[in-house]
Amino acid sequence: MKWDVSKNENVKVFDPNLSYELTGYRPIDKTRGLDFNPEWFCEARNTKIRTGKYCQYPIGSKKYREFWNEEYKKCRDGLTLHEYTITGDHYFFLNFYQLKTSSKVKKGGGGRSVGFPSFYVTQYEYFHYLEMCRRLFKNACGLKARAVGFSEIGAAIVLNMYSTVRHSRSLIAAPSERHLKPTIKKCNDELNYLNTETDSGFLKLRQVKNTEMYKRASHINKDTGAERVSEDELLDLDISVDVLERPHKATKEELDPKKYGVIAIQGHKKGLLLPDLEGVDTVEQQLQIACEKAGISLDEEYDIERFKVTRYKEGE
């Protein structure tokens, strides 16, 4: 592949009519890129549309972990197929972001449905421009009309970083709260989608600060289950103490994540998870987390114990 601009050349301005080795950008217009097919880059979402699931493997299995590790890599690093490249943010936008569409509205006033975004060349160019700025350590500036979808792209970029880049922080700013809240709402709606529709692949648990304007993906110690917090968050903590009753052997059918805690056991390996935790709504999620803490694969055999707790909360 011969590039108009090699990765070692100084780039002063992004010209969408040129190809750039740095990000793998190739122009797509009326005469170039005629062999390009956006469906190459939409396999994950097409599988979700066709089957109702992104991943076809059992939650917690080796194949499941391999699938989501690869999806995270695509969302961070992008994807190159047939000598065309889309950036990681663009891949996340196409496959894991939901926005309002007008394609399924049957009559006026019926509201817009929610679905995956379409591929647009202008957005393809814009994502590459942002990626180029990132790699060159330059600021990016975008001038756009309102209501053309670029605030959705901004929300998707924030959520991709939030979901796939450890220890990252994203800031959304606007001249007034009236302009800020719609974008924040887009992010919050999408977080709900990622938590409920990705088979726990993008699930984020136990946010200490969890308000409309502030979302936090917490770090949890896999050995102790303890969550790391910063000093400025201490005053926001609600303190509770759980006193565990004696555990008893149980089957999967006898579990209830709201009522019982669970212990996954395989030889000397043990993983314990308390009951009634935010974001843990199903037995599958409960067992997945307990097994991960113990280092047990869900496709292996293991024993289950359940237990009740008495929970004492501060001020009660």
Any low-confidence stretches, pLDDT <50, length ≥5? 104-110
What is the 3D form? elongated
Which whole number gives the mean pLDDT?
84
Beta content = 5-15%
Main sheet properties: 4 strands, antiparallel
- List the strand order in the largest sheet: 8-11-9-10
C-alpha-based Rg, rounded? 23 Å
One letter per element, helices H and strands E, the order comes to HHEEHEEHHHEEEEEEHEE
* Quantity of strands, as a count: 12
Distance between termini? 68 Å
Question: Helix coverage percent of residues?
Answer: 25-40%
**Strand pairing plus helix content: what structural class?**
alpha+beta
Helices, by number, come to 7
Folded structure, characterized:
- This protein has 316 residues and is an alpha+beta fold.
- The protein is built from 7 helices and 12 strands.
- The chain has helices at residues 43-51, 62-77, 88-96, 121-135, 150-164, 177-197, 283-294; strands at 79-81, 84-86, 99-101, 113-115, 210-211, 214-215, 240-244, 248-249, 261-266, 269-273, 303-307, 309-313.
- The chain has a 4-stranded antiparallel β-sheet with strand order 8-11-9-10, covered by helices on one side. The protein has a two-stranded antiparallel ribbon with strand order 1-2. The protein has a two-stranded antiparallel ribbon with strand order 3-4.
- Helix 2 (62-77) crosses helix 3 and helix 3 crosses helix 5.
- It is elongated, with a radius of gyration of 23 Å.
- It starts with 42 loop residues before the first helix and ends with a strand.
